[in-house]
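User: Can you predict the 3D structure for this chain?
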Amino acid sequence: MRIDLTGKTALVTGSTQGIGRAIATTLADAGARVAVNGRSAETVQRVVAELQDESPERNLVAAAGDVTTPEGADAVLAATGDVDILVNNLGVFGATPALDISDDEWRRYFDVNVLAAVRLIRATLPGMMARGWGRVLDIASDSAVVIPAEMIHYGMSKTALLAVSRGFAKEAAGTGVTVNSVLAGPTHTGGVEDFVYSLVDPALPWDEAQREFMRLHRPQSLLQRLIEPEEIANMVAYLASPLASATTGAAVRVDGGYIDAIVP
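Assistant: Here is the predicted structure, written as structure tokens:
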């Protein structure tokens, strides 16, 4: 199979690092025109330049702005133009004891992890439906299903995102537009190595350290290692392509078998 996104414009929120950057890179390498997003214009421009230097044929556009605000979202969409593929990757997470999570924190997690995605879907879905083709992909988490005791506000927000995806898939029924969520498992992103080494022997080589971390602290994983961002990006690229035309309203797992279920 060959994934060809030539002629499509993709917007990937929170794409200056980690999973978002990997998704933006993979979509661009498949031929899409990709809008790279982050809150800082300077950071966005730097990442666009870095990705362009790596591969000059990539078609990239800087779309700086804070999509958690209506004004920021409008600025990002103005820089991007008509969106054919929307990837709602932006998210925040952090560990807080359940009884210590304040009202403000509950609202912040909902605003960033859920409402920002809803805002962008609401703005882009009508155009996709009118054109008869489009892809909306919400990056969720294993935490949407396996609620972590140390960050239930994060789990709540990702569970809500699954409902958002399913609901908008129904809104787009029969239009040629698909809406799906991606359940990402424990992933090797910035800062994770420090976190891993805080829990295992810091003298261990990285491959051994991450396997020890998974064995002791994430034993549910069948992969028994952290997932690389590119592995999640590969699934996103497939779901964003015409090849996935019969997949909609789904929560597709790239979790390394972390979620202990035989049905997604």
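The mean pLDDT is 96. Strands lie at 9-12, 33-36, 59-62, 85-88, 134-141, 177-184, 251-254.
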